[in-house]
Amino acid sequence: MKSILIPVEDHGILEPQLEAALLLGRMFDSYIEGIAITPDYPVVLPVDIAIGVPSPITPENRIEIARTCRERFEGFMVTREIPRSAGLGGLGFGWRQDGLMEDAFLGAYGRVFDVIVVGRPDGSNGQTRLSTVEAALFETGHPVLISPPNSPRSIGETVVIAWNRSTETARTILGSMPILSKARRIVILEIEDWGVPGPSGAELARFLRMRDMPAEAVTVTDTANRPGEKILAEAAALGCDLLVKGAYTQSRLRQMFFGGATSHILSNTTMPVILAH
Q1: What would you report as the CA-atom Rg of the chain, rounded to the nearest whole angstrom?
Q2: DSSP 38-76
Q3: How many domains is the chain partitioned into structurally?
Q4: Among residues 80, 112, 147, which one ends one of the domains?
Q5: What is this structure's pTM?
Q6: Residue 153 belongs to some domain of the structure
Q7: Domain that holds residue 256
Q8: Each residue of 140-187: pLDDT tens digit?
Q9: Last residue of a domain, which of 147, 170, 185?
Q10: For the segment 194-239, what is each residue's pLDDT rounded down to a tens digit?
Q11: How far apart are the C-alpha atoms of 95 and 6, rounded to whole Å?
């Protein structure tokens, strides 16, 4: 994971997201790039005030917001003595120069990075917006690291894989291989009667052990039928500092009405989570 992208928004909680990215960057001597991001507001020029048409974000506002985002990102990196870099080798940081960009741009630009690091989109004031996370998940084709509100102390020493045998989870595992290869312990967590038909957790563990990864399989029951809660509880009990899971193996519409493991984890995780769709 040599290239890391961080969407930066001028909101109250940014440092845990940056700390998580830096932990990952130190593991792989990565290039960490920041980009100023905003909701998909149209650019509206100011009009005569008598008409009464407000502009949600003017060109002047965009310049100021982008400047603030850049200052926060670069201030963090400079304080931690991370060198500026063009991404040609070694740990370093840079900034996307194109001003304030929308979520849709993030979804496209993120395709040339190994991982995108965002905060937990729990809907509270100052947290990453869900639309930003979903743009990264559905449009980049690359893994997305969700950072919890409290800065993690480590990432990837004890990894729990929430294995539901789905294509999305298999894709997430593939994208997480660089981290898995450095883990001290990998636990394949299965929940009885949860998921789709496919290889067992024991078969996945064998696949990883063939690659010299310390994997083991565990199966638990979920009498409450709340897999998101069960996954987080079991992962915490195992001392997990990285949860790996496929994102939205049910449709987003179904999760909106009936709930789902991805939605619950996105809103409630207290540990770093890598997701892909």
Answers
A1: 20
A2: E-SPPP-----GGG----SS-HHHHHHHHHHHHHHHHHH
A3: 2
A4: 147
A5: 0.90
A6: no
A7: 158-276
A8: 999 999 999 999 999 999 999 999 999 999 999 999 999 999 999 999
A9: 147
A10: 999 999 999 999 999 999 999 999 999 999 999 999 999 999 999 9
A11: 10
